[in-house]
Queue: 4 jobs
Job 1
Amino acid sequence: MSDPLFRLVCTPATLTSSPEGWAVEMLQDGAVAVTADAGGLARIDEAARTIGVTAIPVVRTEATPEAQEQTVMAHADGLALVWVAPEFSDAAQAWATKRGPMTLLLGSHGELSAEERRRVERFVAILSGQAA
């Protein structure tokens, strides 16, 4: 795939804690960028191995949570976005609402529940169907 249909922004734990093969399959039409967490480079390395890539983009770290959210929003650019983070500010939620069905926010500290994974799968299936 040359151009992704969506971007996924999450911590490495979202990828490494998913069932085997889930992240790879879900990212067939998408591009991932991770946010740093306490696991540092070792966790980022593990995430890259989980999805079978030799390199993985990292969203730069900002001084404040608000600035971090702005960076993720800018990273989304014009693409649909699946964004996994522990919490979202009112401003981030308003931004997502304004984007409508182009944004899926999931409040999680990393590992997605089975229901959250199904939400991501439905989101990606809808995007893939629209692109076909």
Job 2
Amino acid sequence: MGPALLSLAGVTLGAGGSLLGQYLVSRASARQFEVQETAAHRAQLKDAVLKFIGIALQVDKAARAVSDSGSTIADPALGQLLYDLWLAQAEIDLAARTEPLRGATYRYALSLAAAARGEMSEPSAVRAAQVHFMDAAYDDMWPRRRRTETEPVAPR
């Protein structure tokens, strides 16, 4: 009877060890998948954010030209810039995980569009929207990480 019990105990310990090993491997695989998924999201969002920022800088430059000279940009050029801006905003809207980033992107694009059309004369409103957008983009890409230093964007 003793050898049978020892044999049964060995089988039970072996099965338990095997199940524990499988659990640990599946847990590590799930964690690795989560890390890869987060990195892929961050890369996709980073590309969308950089595209949006590039277009936003062009629209901002056009808006400053409008406010400095009091003139307007040729309608086709302004229309294409604003179209590209809203398209880039929609790209972020699709890629973003958080609602604050979606809202901040929309508000920044809206303020840029208003400034480019000469409807907004206060550059600080555009800068405030830009700061909120950048903060929201950072928070969406690195959700549980705080910035070490936050400095407001200096007006031009």
Job 3
Amino acid sequence: MSSDPSPEEVSQFVERFAGVLANSGVPSMSARVMGRMLVSPTGTMTASELAEALRISQPAVSGAVRQLIQVGFISRERLPGSRKDHYRIRDDVFAAILERRNNALGEWEASTRAGADLFGHDTPIGRRLAEAAEFFNFIHEDLDQMITNWRKGHPVR
């Protein structure tokens, strides 16, 4: 069993993790907030705790949590006896992220299929768009099944 990481090690992990999320399209401040909440022992933090831990301003925290709430990756709650909002990261946040990405694949498939219909399946453009639609459908269906299988074995608490 290893000892608890130092605050500096925690900060370095959060920044590296946030960089990975940012490289895959998550806004950088939201990625930092999500990374910090992920390593919170309770999975909840207040705006002031996030600002202090990440050394960022309250308005920066506000914008990030607003975006994360909007996409359903965190929730706002009041703890008994507290007047402050606490933000809680979803236990299944990574499945939720992939579900959102998978929904986008469904939209990509529909759009490219509509393009193939528009240009005609017997044209080079139509064939290219139809193949893209088939690819997006293939990935979408497989990822949907994988998420379903994951959720069967890992119910959300």
Job 4
Amino acid sequence: MNAHTAPAPTVSTVVPVARLVEAGLRRTDRAIRDTARPPAGDLLAHAARARRLAELHTRRARWWAVLQRDTATHHEVPVVYVQAVVTAVLDNERQARYWNDTADDWQALADRRPTSDVAGAMSNWAELGLTEPAAPGLPDTSAVAR
């Protein structure tokens, strides 16, 4: 092409939302699958991995939300499909919260701070000499050294 030749016209193609979402979910699923487990004793690497998984599940929730908005605008789509997409959004948001909480607990372990009260097997309260919290609003509601 010389300076006097106009560029060739481009053809614009509209990609259906479902195909865009499918591609986004496929990339996100691959990233989740490829998120390697860190070595057993590397607490900071476990925290970083959990943060990455939280980020990826947030991304999955956003992709499902795109499909939810698109599906809800098509009146011919059965309600059960919209409900399924809403369930996928909520499930991935829950997974993202789980991984964020897990990352916080791994970070607390690395910093030798108390883990959350829902840390389960990751709890380090006994190791740190802390008591279990009492019911909210009652005395001794926070983790206190024995």
